[in-house]
Task: structure prediction
Amino acid sequence: MITFEKAVKFIGEIEVPSDKSITHRALILGSMAEGVTLINKPLLSTDTLATLNAFEFMGVDVMNEITRFTVRSDGYKKFKEPLNVINCMNSGTTTRLLAGVLSPSKYTSILTGDASLIKRPMGRVIKPLSMMGADIRARVDNNFLPMTIHPSKMFSTKIESEVNSAQVKSAVLLAGLQLEGETTYIEKVVTRDHTENMLKRFGADLKVDGNDISVKGVDSLSAQSFTVPGDFSSAAYYIALALIFEGSDITVKDVGLNKTRTGLLTVLKSLGLVIDIDMKDDAFEPYGDIRIKHQKLKGGSVTGDIIANMIDEIPVLAVSALFSEAPVEIRNAKELRVKESDRISAIVSNFKALGAKIEEFDDGMKIYPLEKINKGAKLKSYHDHRIAMINIILAKKFGIDILLDDIDCLNVSYPEFIVDIISLEEV
Ligand code: S3P
Result:
């Protein structure tokens, strides 16, 4: 069990770890391209290392110099046969994007993952890839890992999204990139567009027309160099700290501000909050500084398409809602049930244990301002990094009364989270 000293407020500037989604894509396209790709400031975490290891396994040379990955590849056509099972560990992004990369391959590959990943749905990528001719077989109605990808004759076509997921879109585009002709993916709602940005950066022939994204097959891509901005999803925990601890004033430097990721900022602004944004560059992947001072979150309802652009930040909104002036209702967020844990159920049971009033819906929850806490409440991470981080914030709010179980899962996206928040603590 881990316990924490109660904090008063958090003040200062911080840089958060680099963006997880962008690091995955940089490794993937750097491996698919020919030449030497330099990825400056990559995220070093168990998730991104799962992607790195997978490509090393297929003969790509990746030098991990901690603050830089140097990727040397002869291009996707020269990938070596994966002679053993590829373990994607806890990473849904690794699995689903790799399914797209590997489905047109001439080799058979087998993907699996940890106890959480093997319970997450993979039918969402298997189905569209199969519509493009892929031959993929998976456990229980072709939905769960391990999955085996067999060689097949794939073809370019149009795919309409059935689930709002950037991972599914990316899988289709990464397969399409290797096929003759043009592959089009039609999204219902615009999801994070890092794959599109990265494909353009690597010189792919990509067209975006509203919600339709088309990519043409290419024989080769050329290597690139770039710097990965901070992860907005990690920065979001500092927004929660500022909203929860009176007197706080926090600036997060050089954080990714791609609009398809910052739905939380849009929602908080619509709920009356003031957040200063200093945009530094909005070319390849927009980034800048965000500054937030303590203010009280007003209640309200958060639903609709915006949820797709803040899906990973719902735990942050939920923990902030415990300290708002009125209840906050979150709907249209059923996808939370198939993340690293069932995040709706995890949040509801932890908040109940804490003494909060909270209603659970199939697609969300309604959180009431916290009136009194159960001393000695035990908060569980469910081995989910985003749940562990909001639990740590609650533990800092209420001190040693709150007991936490494991925090190893922080390694998935933000290994230094505790050290970093403590560095901003003012006594
Ligand atoms: C991600 C997309 C999102 C997100 C995940 C990372 C990505 O998942 O929740 O943490 O890098 O493409 P979905 O595509 O399943 O919505």
Observations:
- Residues 62 and 226 are 15 Å apart (CA to CA).
- The longest strand covers residues 249-256.
- The chain has a mean pLDDT of 97.
- The chain has two domains: 9-17+229-426, 20-227.
